[in-house]
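Morning, I've got a small favour to ask if you have a moment. It would help a lot if you went through both lines with me. I owe you a coffee for this, so here goes:
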Amino acid sequence: MNKDINIIKLLSKDDKEVIHSAIISFLLNESKFFREKILGVGFEDIEIPKEEVSYPFRPDEGSRRRIRFDILVTDKAGERICIIENKFKSLPTRIQFRGYSRFAEQKFKGKDVSKVLISFLSPAKGVLPADWRSITYAQIHDWIQEFMERKPELSQNKRFLVEQYQELLQEKLTAYQEAKTTRIYEIFSNPGDNKGENRFWLTLFLSEILSEMEEYQEYFSGFYLGGGSSNIPLLNLHPRKSWKDYEAESEFLIQLQGGTIKLYCHIGRGMNGNAIVGEKIQSLQKNGLETKSSGEFKDTKETAREERTKYVYRENLLKEIGEESFSIERIKEYLLDFYHRVNKANEPKHLKKEDDILNSEGTILGLYSCGTKHYLSSHLNDGSGTLYYRTNWDLLKKYMGSEILLKELFLKSDKFSFKPRQGKVISEIDKEDYCNLIQCGESYYSELSDGLKNKEFEKSFYAC
């Protein structure tokens, strides 16, 4: 093995997932041993694996995006397909897994489809769906060693490539253990140092935290892992309990970036961010937010530049946890504590109940307002909680006139939030799954019994 130089590292491609996908595709094409290990039995004869395969995808009505598979493998008979999601510096979320699976069911209907995740880290317990297999790069490294021993006739050029790749994996695996056990405090303190290496490890650590936090579905409805405007990796945690200011169309969430944890605000377009953040600060202080010694509220002095995002309150994670105790587990504990402290003091602008549209010993479909905006509430059939979604009079007229189903009205809504029933364990579901659980969502208004309808509301609505 050539220890003098590693070509992949020299070209600064060692953390690029496309490079790892290309080498894994080469190994699949080259070796029956690797096909059995990664794809499973039944893939003896395969077409040349395709990388970065992109398709248009419409997960629900009114949305359109593209979905990409890192590696797509098809047997020569065209009957079996394996999709491989390759994640070298992050992990997919439950929602991402669900999107991949839903698309595969639509696109490859009638085919025998298997699904494989190859990642640096294993997903946290409960995140990986039952119909997916998880393979780590540590396993890939060990299989390469066995592959080399099984195939002494491999050409010099191919052997050089595989040895270089194995050397790279060994170096990364060793560096990860060092980063996690002895350098994690330094990495969170100085994420931009060490020629970009710290950013790589910080992204991986945040991805590990995200995967662990998915266990707390009763608190969080979604997560975002990204680069941030300062190119320092960040993790956003979106609370399941509504922290939204409906009237200002602004959202409050938790953000972890470097050594700082923040209550963060995404400000609605055209809204006065200083006023919104200032009002939230007053509310938190009035409601007795429990702060830490490093805690700091945002200075809301007017600025010339219009900001679409602002922090409301922040704490220094490094000072609060301390270097000796700093770990993934302690960060996770701190995030949960921060959530509970903010949630206890949180007082969002509530929707005002206007009337019931459908009722049967309790609201089935309620009408709410917040300023000039209107919202509907629907209970879910599985009893897990209540859905709130924005509407307008035109959509409501179409529903009341039986032109659209209630679930179709919900899909056309541009804003929605979910309030779980207290103590109910929530499964992570997306917008299309919600719409299939709405009470009376499958029936036109004219098909519903008169006993469910609020005739007084119906009369006043048609009089408008």
Q: What stands out?
A: The CA atoms of residues 28 and 35 lie 5 Å apart. Confidence is low (pLDDT under 50) at residues 423-428. Residues 156-182 form the longest helix (27 residues). The two ends are 81 Å apart (CA to CA).
